């Protein structure tokens, strides 16, 4: 049985990331980029699909539902070093205590994973097991020794393992094994480096020096955080997590570093999130900007201008890390899935859906960037006008909406509201700067027409609430964003009615679903899912904005308490099992945490949608 999702911690180097379990096993790592094939895929199968475990020998044993047998004799504690993604895992064993420090240094050329073992007390024997399996756990590489390394080679990939001091390793059972002992004050550092297999040995790094640099770099970034309100540690951890999801070479932002962690254990709602959604990225950008991080915002804005270049009719709702357009969805049938949740997918067919909300989110984020003083780019305005031309032609069409339903297209109310946002922000920019080119009257007309239509066809006067789509009696948590984006004032009776209705009908044991659990006709998928965390944060925002401040704060506190021991949140939460669900850690959930902290305690930006 795999560990629970919340048993993992994240380490990363701004180009990819790994998940490290409480049991000392790295079970997920894609190299060299977030969206590359995984060389450790045990997360979505078993140890035979690749993992790297370093742990006290006495903590080993056949796995049980609660972790490795023998683990009961041990106490494990974990924590990130403050303001960083450097992870310390400490074991107390009957023989003494030991710490393993895991991190991925900022990259010069090749990606490295560094694991420094340090004896803290007594004399502890540890075991290492490395099973490299390229191409998502399917390829067993050839192993050889070279230049003081164990080298794994298969096809385009090679991985080089060494240790300081040198530790004896042996091959057995298609794995590389080691056993060594540390006393208090002694260290053994392991470095695993990925490299294209046709190139010469990768440059060596000094693991201890790299640790110092990593700590300095992360700390310098953390020091720039402007948020000083309550729960600062949680907010900063969320910001660090969002930073770790940015692919530094291009500025693209992934929705999560994993694929196919299920939204229902044993179910089919398993998707690949290692791509750059315009929606998730714009909301990430909003969170970073509101906490004072301008460089990342500028890099993303430039990424967007490159990705969106071309005919605006061809704008996709998501791209690859460098703006790649083809992300074909495939099933990896050799992987059994996390706790048997099949299929495991790579790629994402939602890339070609029509999701009208995305235009509003992009335009809103460009407006926010301008307000925050980002250097203007003339083609950013040209892009904005082109998007509006496209919307003028398309806004009356049904779409798949922000939840990327796999059922038929509908006239989703949230999508139309975000079309209104696109027109509204463009009109406002032109009013503020009459030099900006464009036909303001045409845009005003469109803005007002969308508003009118939504209020007529998207509002159920009998129940006093906006609905999920025109003519439906269903609700949708995205309706909570109406006051936040300025579509109607928070004290408008239609907003108050909607917030109450959404809270009453979509609450699921203290948290919020994104829509009703019976709505498989709309989303086109079998099975159920958990409470959707970003929606629960949106409810806290809406309660606060509509004057229910105590209720808002209580919900926020409950949400903060769901973070795992190192402050991470998946996409969803199962309040019955008390477990996290879905891809992990997910940008959406951490955006929600930052946004709500700012709404409740700080100076949140009124214009943002997240
Ligand atoms: O619900 C089915 C859809 O689920 C995924 O979409 C979700 O994740 C996206 C990335 O975080 C997010 O932008 C979207 O709002 C979520 O619904 C999946 O990516 C889709 O392929 C799938 O149709």
From TrEMBL:
InterPro entries: 6-hairpin_glycosidase_sf (IPR008928), 6hp_glycosidase-like_sf (IPR012341), GH15-like (IPR011613), Trehalase-like_N (IPR045582). Keywords: Hydrolase. One of its GO terms (molecular function) is hydrolase activity. Residues 229-596 form the GH15-like domain. Residues 3-152 form the Trehalase-like N-terminal domain. This is Glycoside hydrolase family 15 protein. The lineage of its organism: Bacteria, Bacillati, Actinomycetota, Actinomycetes, Kitasatosporales.
